[in-house]
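Case study.
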Amino acid sequence: MVKSIFWSYIAGFLDADGSIYVQLKRNSTYKYDFQISPSVVFYQKDNGVKGLPEIYEKIDLGHLRYRNDKMIEIVISDRKSIRFLLSKITKFLILKKKQAELMLLILNKMEEIKTKQDFISVAELIDEFRNLNYSRKRTVDSQVVKHHLKEI
Amino acid sequence: MVKSIFWSYIAGFLDADGSIYVQLKRNSTYKYDFQISPSVVFYQKDNGVKGLPEIYEKIDLGHLRYRNDKMIEIVISDRKSIRFLLSKITKFLILKKKQAELMLLILNKMEEIKTKQDFISVAELIDEFRNLNYSRKRTVDSQVVKHHLKEI
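After joint prediction, the assembly is written out as follows.
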């Protein structure tokens, strides 16, 4: 009960000032030449008031990042921590519930990748964040992956 | 229990992207020539995704404001609504708990104002938001009020 209250608070915080997304990055050290990079991030302007670090201490996941543009972030990128966090907060999310569900689906599918086609299918799921997050332009999407994997 | 979960979510949302403050405004239609104007505001960038309006429908307090700079706000400024909201969320706030407590104190003191000195005391309490919110420069503070009330 008390725990639910806390995770519901965190859900509100993430809905207001957080982000759930997966990036595809070119990285030839990975089997399919692309890295799948999932993140859950909490943001806050670094205005001298100890805000986000206090939340960070309480959730105890990921790491704190002080950006050059006066923003602080809690960045959670390891799959286990993301799974744990989303298992706690997804049911309380109002604005980013779909992103959380898509993230969990992708994390599951990632573990089942056995073929190029499996990898492409995951890349296609990642494309769906584009519609949900209304976010930055993606330079690497499933089309890029598909094109590349046809050639190798 | 379910209600607590909701208000805890709202506390997280407000801690991440909201503000609790009281302004002093010159207004000669008021008895002491200044208006005490309390606000609780939720902010969000208007990125085309229906975000804050959805929260607004759920909390059902205040009004929605679409700003020219592509921000949406839920603005709650009537005292009764502020009292109601803060009675629900103060215990769940982590970052803005002091602001909530100061707001409730000021709302109580406002109702007991009988003399100029009472009014000045409230203005002094309002000054304390300056330290808590690390916010915009205040042009009207208790010094301005004090100076003015000595003259009338």
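Observations recorded in class. Chain A has a mean pLDDT of 90. Chain A touches chain B at residues 1, 4-6, 8-18, 42, 44, 47-49, 51, 54-55, 58, 92, 94-95, 134 (CB under 8 Å). We will return to this complex in the next lecture.
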